[in-house]
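Put briefly, the fold is written as integer tokens. The lines below illustrate.
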Amino acid sequence: MSEIISDLRVLTEAGSSEWTLGNITFWDDTQLQNILDKHREDFTFQPLEAYPVYSTGGTLIYKEYEVEYKNIEQTTGGTAIFYVQDGNFDTAGTATWTADYRRGRIYFTDNQIGMVFYATGRAYDLNSAAAEVWRIKANHYATNFDFSTDNHSVKKSQVYDHCIERAEYFEGLSESSVVQAHISRSDDA
């Protein structure tokens, strides 16, 4: 989870002591984790898609697979958060594969020709979480005001505007912003 929290910090420029409100300092890992949990999707027995490649001998090698989810929480400390199962519901040992959790890629050490695999885990919509962090930042800076003195002009409202622009940007990238529509023809019988 620490990599996902770190990625969210980068996307939102969320320092560990950006501001203090009362006795609460923003942004600690727990605050970011709580936001990420609102943008979490649990998946169970999700089919993995194989990406075979030709070996130098011309045969197909099945070692690389992909799950449709990205930014997956890793299994850590012995707690099975993410695991891979075969078509018989047997869990593949972690010694037989590695994962690129950010991209949702699974790499087996041996050829898995003819095998079907499924994954179970938790994935996070980082863009949606980033948009929420930026909106919270905008709310914090909403009371800032512009002022001028002695031929100096300070435009604190630009911070608020920047936060709103970043929130809208990440909302546009978010997986939840994709809208599907069914279109039908009136002349189609």
